[in-house]
Amino acid sequence: MLKLNNIEVAYLNVIRVLHGVSLNVEDGSIVALLGANGAGKSTTLKAISGLLHVEEGEVTDGSIEWNGERMDNKSAEEIGKLGIIQALEGRRVFGHLTTEENLLVGAYHRKDRHTVKEDLKMVYDYFPRLKELRHNTAGYLSGGEQQMLVIGRAMMAAPKLMMLDEPSLGLAPLLVEEIYNIIQRFNTEHKTSVLLVEQNVRIALSIAHYGYVVENGRVVLDGSADFLKNNEDVKEFYMGLSTVGTKKSYREVKHYKRRKRWL
Ligand SMILES: Nc1ncnc2c1ncn2[C@@H]1O[C@H](COP(=O)(O)OP(=O)(O)O)[C@@H](O)[C@H]1O
Ligand SMILES: [Mg+2]
What we know:
This protein is an alpha/beta fold. It has a domain of 149 residues: Rossmann fold (3-Layer(aba) Sandwich), CATH 3.40.50.300. The chain is built from eleven helices and ten strands. It has a six-stranded mixed β-sheet, sandwiched between helices. The chain has a four-stranded antiparallel β-sheet with strand order 2-1-4-5, with helices on one face. A hairpin with a 3-residue loop joins β1 and β2. α3 runs parallel beside α6. The model has no long low-confidence stretch (mean pLDDT 90). Magnesium ion (MG) binds next to α1. The site of magnesium ion (MG) has 4 residues, from α1.
């Protein structure tokens, strides 16, 4: 299980971005980290995967535990070896390598080389499109295909915890649904825990078991997916739905803000 205890993160020693984020990812579960642009979702993932250092960021307080052991002092390399794998946002593929080479890169630190071939088959079974494109240069794949590729590459690492940063970003709704079905299938079939970052609250809660809402570097609300789906604030502010009328008064908004602050 992954456990974040009140972590604070600053970039360049001065830009404080997370102000005490706590969350758990139980083994085998899908957890959604929700929130608007700039809330601190990607920063949270990078704090876990050890990639903060690349951007002069640092966990300045709190702790991160993996199966009861502190891991916030480990390097990205060591964290990867624990089986915690982050698929990067923005579909960062190695543009000059082929699809298949990109997938094999995902397995580079694995010792069980003999199963890598089988896993390649597994990824092609999840993503038949990637099989068709296996000899194509990744840089020329479409946005959706590159998104499939970064997820497939994360699968190739035989992850215990797979972290995905906005897998739906910029994709057509049908494709988003397809990719989400695959994430859900992978979770069920491999018991891999998934920590999912999304602005698309509706789609994230369609497969998540539990969710956290992050605002300005703080968790302001958390609960089961069903609880969040039915929460009026989540519906109003993140799903654009409201059962209490479309126009909320300023006072009500202020009330919401105050409530947010004290949650
Ligand atoms: N490398 C960085 N240096 C300085 N500030 C950053 C850096 N990366 C992100 N930030 C800031 O941290 C805040 C949270 O960013 P981020 O974690 O990317 O949010 P989200 O993923 O929720 O959109 C934003 O205000 C952003 O400008
Ligand atoms: Mg982000």
